[in-house]
Amino acid sequence: MFLADYSKYFYFSFLSFDKTLSSLIIRTAHPARLTYEDQFARKILLLLEISGHGLIWISGALLWNVYRWGNAEMRPNFFLIGLILDVIIVGLTKAIVRRPRPRDNIEDMIATASIDRYSFPSGHASRSFFIAAYAFFVMPSYAQILITWAFVLSLSRILMKRHYLADVIIGANLGIVIGFVLGRFSNTHYD
Known about the structure:
InterPro entries: PAP2/HPO (IPR000326), PAP2/HPO_sf (IPR036938). With 191 residues, the chain is mainly α. The protein has 7 helices and no strands.
């Protein structure tokens, strides 16, 4: 019984700490009221959000596979598999954990599924870090710019009040693991 009580206490303490730290990041970056400049910044952040949308990347991966049809190269296949695996893992985790998005989240996301009302883990962070990690192995000349993009996109998830810090950190780590495994496998077996 003691262990169950301790686990529950730790869990709720962690959630409280995560909310506090995320709020601190947001307060540091946002003034009390939205000005014209802040509204412009939000539009930029929305464009950044769209750049990490799953539909765009899965569509791109499908086109890459069609373009390489009949070619023995397996990298486009692994990229598509990674994106689909990422969506499945993030979706299942969101369905199980069901952590609500931050209270001040503005509901202006584009092309969402019902599971997207939950916050943990961040699908954008997971996807962007998967792409960056995969590129590290498969297209190293693009890796640096994609790693930068992944960091900026992930930070934007907190600044837009879409996610808490832990959502982004766990999502990023999930993406890195998927990208590392598939990128390394792709290079080892199909180089």
